[in-house]
Design brief:
about 140 residues; alpha+beta; 4-stranded mixed β-sheet; 4-stranded antiparallel β-sheet; 8 strands; about 40% strand
């Protein structure tokens, strides 16, 4: 049975508690989480950031599942991961990851591997909107 409990691309707001609950079991001794939120600045932006707009390739959800499976490979545990698309405001969660494993080292490693692979490989692009109306697109790895 796959340890991937959630691997979803969605336009709906992300629920951290739902992700944490998805990885709970009597075999889990450690849960790690990561929540990536929209911030009000970016090193490449000339002005304050007011919003992000995310778009995903049609294969993004299948890619997210593959990324999660690769991060969990060879370990017993559960993963719940979602990435948001559409229009997000400052403070909104764009990515939520929860990982449950028997021991903390695996939970930390899987969570870190998962977010780094998402940044490198997930076919999602974001349009950053600045306070002056300037926009900039960033792709995979950006």
């Amino acid at each position: 049975m796959s340890g991937i409990r959630i691997a979803r691309i969605t336009a709906e707001p992300l629920d951290v508690a739902h992700h944490l609950a998805a990885v709970e079991s009597t075999a889990v001794g450690a849960v790690t989480s990561f929540v990536g939120t929209v911030r009000d600045h970016d090193p490449d932006a000339a002005a304050a950031v007011t919003a992000l707009h995310y778009e995903a390739h049609p294969d993004a959800e299948a890619t997210l599942r593959s990324i999660a499976e690769a991060a969990l490979a060879g370990r017993d545990g559960q993963v719940a991961v979602s990435h948001r698309i559409g229009d997000l405001a400052v403070g909104d969660a764009a990515v939520v990851i929860a990982v449950g494993t028997a021991h903390r080292a695996d939970a930390f490693e899987v969570c870190r591997e998962l977010i780094e692979a998402i940044k490198r490989e997930l076919p999602i692009w974001k349009q950053q909107v600045e306070v002056d109306g300037t926009t900039a697109w960033k792709g995979i790895g950006g």
